[in-house]
Design goal:
Calcium-transporting ATPase, cytoplasmic transduction domain A, 7-stranded antiparallel beta sheet, 14 helices, alpha+beta
Length: 406
């Protein structure tokens, strides 16, 4: 196999879970001792850094200019210009002040949310232990390449999609990828090609967490080639659509504009036909246009949305656009699987129902502090339910083990 073949092969392969350890190392042109520094640098130049590439964020100027393209803002700017032309300087300055406030609040909020999102991304692990020429070293996660052998312990975040070479009671939490909050037992060895992603016990996925044990794995995909990278590609292709609130405001702005132009046109026409001078007609028309514009509307809307954003921020919620708050507030039903997993990576039991009652459960997540209120349910029935649940879990585990060994 030439030096160029592995790189091309890695970009197209998606069945690593079907291979044995020796086959994986052979296909990666790697060994248990890891890569040499020279080979690691060569592959880094070929594959690029191990990072999820984001769509380039717009600079401040384009984002600021976008705020002035909103229909209501355009109407207010027009009203300010008209006020200046008819000599109403005070009115013009008031309107401009409202525009500056509305635009500034929206602009600052968007950039604050972008910064918060970037800080969340930076929370991932920065370094990882790898083997280079048989020696253990600590390297930047961005410098990982296919063929690198990494060493993982409980608490570590998996830095790239990898094949498990050796595992010692190793379990990982894959909630970030699959939504499954229960730790997954990881073992080396080939499994069936038809095995779905959550059942590939020999594969470690990017940003999943080692919850128990330790292991050694070889990296086969980095950056945008990982399963998480594939998801990122799909998400970044989604075009940002206007929220229902923005669509309604745009419709209202168009209606106001049409009404304003129609009224001004009709009155100006009648005034001109009755013999008034063209200058007088023009002044009246401009005055009517200014009076028809709801100058306070953008300020009231922005202030209301900011109050909502403030309340959301107190609940540790990051709001990217002001208008999204109204959309969230209009939501009546949220359909999701395992909401605790989506928000905190853990699930919490609050109530246990049986045929003749229920029991309230206290405690949060995996914390051992908590209690069960038996006042509305039989303790013996709850114990029987717990034994049945354990039996079901053990049966499911045995079935998965049996399928994986076929």
């Amino acid at each position: 196999m030439s030096k160029e073949e592995p790189s091309q092969y890695l970009r197209t392969r998606n069945d690593w879970h079907t291979l044995e350890k020796s086959q994986v190392l052979q296909n990666l042109s790697a060994s248990d001792a890891g890569l040499t520094e020279f080979e690691a640098e060569r592959r880094l130049a070929d594959h690029g850094h191990n990072e999820i590439k984001k769509i380039r964020r717009e600079s401040a100027v384009p984002v600021l200019l976008k705020q002035f393209r909103e229909p209501l803002i355009v109407i207010l700017l027009a009203a300010s210009a008209i006020s200046s032309l008819v000599g109403e300087i005070v009115d013009s300055l008031v309107i401009i002040s409202i525009v500056i406030m509305a635009v500034s609040v929206s602009f600052v909020q968007q950039f604050r949310s972008e910064k918060a999102i970037e800080e969340l991304i930076k929370m991932t692990a920065a370094t990882i232990h790898v083997l280079r020429s048989g020696e253990q070293k600590t390297v930047d996660v961005r410098e990982l390449v296919p063929g690198d052998v990494i060493l993982l312990n409980a608490g570590d975040v998996v830095p790239a999609d990898s094949y498990l070479l050796e595992g010692f009671n190793m379990q990982t939490n894959e909630a970030v990828l699959t939504g499954e909050s229960t730790p997954i037992q990881k073992e080396s060895g080939a499994i069936r090609k038809e095995s779905p992603l959550p059942e590939r016990r020999n594969i470690l996925y990017t940003l999943t967490t080692v919850t128990y044990g330790r292991g050694k794995a070889v990296v086969f995909a980095t950056g945008m080639s990982t399963e998480l990278g594939k998801i990122a590609k799909g998400v970044q292709r989604i075009e940002i659509q206007k929220t229902p609130f923005e669509a309604r405001m745009k419709g209202i702005s168009k209606i106001l504009t049409i009404i304003m132009i129609s009224v001004v046109g009709v009155i100006s026409t009648f005034a001109f036909l009755r013999g008034f001078e063209i200058i007088e007609v023009l002044v009246w028309g401009l005055s009517l246009a200014v009076a028809a514009v709801p100058e306070a509307l953008p300020a009231v809307i922005t202030s209301s949305l900011m109050i909502a954003v403030y309340k959301m921020a107190k609940q540790n919620a990051v709001i990217r656009r002001l208008s999204a708050v109204e959309t969230l507030g209009s939501t009546t039903v949220i359909c999701s699987d395992k909401t605790g997993t989506l928000t905190k990576g853990e699930m919490t039991v609050r109530k246990v129902y049986i045929h003749n009652g229920y029991a309230d459960v206290t405690g949060v997540g995996y914390d051992f502090d908590g209690s069960i209120d038996y006042s509305k349910a039989s303790k013996q029935d709850l114990a029987l339910l717990a034994l049945t649940a354990c039996a079901c879990v053990m049966t499911l585990w045995c079935q998965r083990r049996a399928r994986g060994s076929e």
